[in-house]
Amino acid sequence: MRNYLAISVGGAFGCVARFYLEGLIPEIFGSGFPYATLTINVLGAFFMGFLFIETLERVAITPAVRTGVLTGVLGGFTTFSTFSMEVVLLVQQGEAARAALYVALSLAMGLGAAFAGAYIARNL
Hints:
- This protein is mainly alpha-helical.
- The chain has one domain.
- It is built from 5 helices and no strands.
- It has helices at 2-29, 35-58, 63-77, 80-92, 96-123.
- It is globular and about 50 Å long.
């Protein structure tokens, strides 16, 4: 039961953070490209890589807190379903090249961020 509560509370925080950034990032970078979702997913991948290793190898926390952060906060924060819909919309709007760029950037930057987070956690 603790895991479910931790996921619920963490998810609420992650969703609020995502909602905030989805409003802030387009104000800074514009709305001609899905910068907000890209940024959120890359940050989420970085924090997943970092916190997964950090809480597995270096920091002792309860399983419920770990689950609340990794599954709840980061699950509520990242936006794969939004990413998928934005790719579909770009293709439907005749922007196949932009859609491909978005997919490539999301994959490369997301994986790079996850590796960077894990590397930093192991080498602090």
